[in-house]
Amino acid sequence: MTSMKTLDFADISQGDNLPELVIPVTVALITGGAIATRDYFPGHHDKDAAQALGSPHVFMNILTTNALVQRFVERWAGPQARFLDLKIKLGVPNYPGDTMTLKGAVSETDPANGRVTVTLAGKNSMGTHVSGSVSLILPQRAA
User: Fold this and answer.
1) Is 120 inside a domain boundary?
2) Residue 121 lies inside a defined structural domain of this protein
């Protein structure tokens, strides 16, 4: 469930776990993400072309993965959180028919500016699809 409330920096602590996000990986998600990001590489929308490349099916592009990571963190932080940077590394592919589960935790906090860093990983049945970190600013209540 998505909250419309933005977390306040005072309400989080280093080590806090984010609620996990389970994402069914479908052909529609993969192809729609590729088209939305103008990535027309055939491996992202044409099963025959993907198989000719040695892949069992179409596979998710990095921009779709990036958007899912942002969704995961924003769902926790709220709409007024300000993203500073998002650093991800891809691992195993995401194929249709699988499920990716994103998990993360607050790994750093800086009360001087409300900065929070979340370390995360998204895993499917083959292993880690994505790992990385997101840094953002959360609002702070006036003292």
Assistant:
1) yes
2) yes
pLDDT one-digit tens code per residue, 36-54: 999 999 999 999 999 999 9
Q: In the chain, how many domains are there?
A: 1
**pTM greater than the 0.85 cutoff:** yes
**Comparing C-alpha atoms, which of 57, 69, 48, 56 is closest to residue 128?**
69
> Any idea what the Cα angle at residue 47 is, between residues 46 and 52, rounded to 5°?
100
Is residue 24 within 8 Å of 81, Cβ to Cβ?
Answer: no
Assess contact for 122 and 101: CB atoms under 8 A: yes
- 10-32: b (≥16 Cβ within 10 Å) or e: eebeeebebeebebebeeebbbe
Angle at alpha carbon of residue 16, lines to 10 and 17, rounded to 5°: 135
How many Å separate Cα 62 from the centre of its chain?
Answer: 10
